[in-house]
Amino acid sequence: MATPPPRLPLITVLGSLNMDLVAYVPHHPVPGETLTADRFATSPGGKGANQAVACAKLSRARPASFASSSSQTQQQLGAGSGSGAGPAGAGGADSAAATTATATATARVSMVGRVGADAHGAALRAGLAAFGVDVRRVAVVAAPGVDTGVALIVVDVPTGENRIVLSPGANYAFLPGECWWWWW
Questions:
Q1: 138: left (phi over 0), alpha (psi -120 to 50) or beta
Q2: DSSP string, the chain
Q3: pTM > 0.90: yes or no
Q4: In terms of DSSP bridges, do strands 18-25 and 10-14 run parallel, antiparallel, or are they unpaired?
Q5: Is pLDDT at 80 greater than 80 in this prediction?
Q6: Model pLDDT for residues 9-45, shown as the tens digit of each residue
Q7: What is each CA distance from 131 to 34, 55, 100, 160, in whole angstroms?
Q8: CATH number, domain 10-183
Q9: Is the pLDDT of residue 123 over 50?
């Protein structure tokens, strides 16, 4: 009988999950001004989700492409193809590399949080899972009027400064008394 592999350490992140809606503008609008964005991107985000993806990436073996020079690595990962505003911001190649390296994980990563029963919530859960994050404790809140959290982000392209308006949505459906259950 073969000896089972040792159980990997568990990293659990309890935090927010938001869909980032990012507009890139030539300058921040003044009150009453309407601007046309240079470009727009939608990507998974939220402090908790971003941390969970970072932990998942760091707990996997790096693909061989990371051993090459910085510029080659950026080209291989499709730098500039994503918004950089959330977990999926690095582009599709990075996601594929993360999935390939999952077999050599040094830790398990789990996310605890809430999303709405909507397309944004489904995309957030799928995005986290694609990076190897366990989403079994990311609950879908199906209550009327409770949507997935959304962050409206306006980025001033010349300066890189941003302004963020957050609608927490289902993130606020998580109550402190619920924290005990995910530990067991």
A1: beta
A2: -PPPPPPPPEEEEE---EEEEEEEESSPPPTT-----SEEEEEEE-HHHHHHHHHHHHTSPPPGGGGS-HHHHHHHTTTTSS-SSSTTTT-HHHHHHHHHGGGG-SSEEEEEEEEESSHHHHHHHHHHHHTTEEEEEEEEE--TT-PPEEEEEEEETTT--EEEEEE-GGGGG--GGGHHHHH-
A3: no
A4: unpaired
A5: no
A6: 999 999 999 999 999 999 999 999 999 999 999 999 9
A7: 37, 10, 10, 27
A8: 3.40.1190.20
A9: yes
Domain boundaries, the chain: 10-183
Closest CA to 149 of 137, 157, 141: 141
Backbone angles phi, psi at 32, to 5 degrees: 85, -5
Instruction: Say yes or no to pLDDT of 184 above 90.
Output: no
In this prediction, residues 110-133 reach a mean pLDDT of 97
Contact 101, 60 (CB under 8 A): yes
pLDDT tens for 130-167 read 999 999 999 999 999 999 999 999 999 999 999 999 99
The first and second tokens of residue 184, run together, are 């067991």
| Residue 44, beta-bridge partner list | 19
Any idea how long the chain is? 184
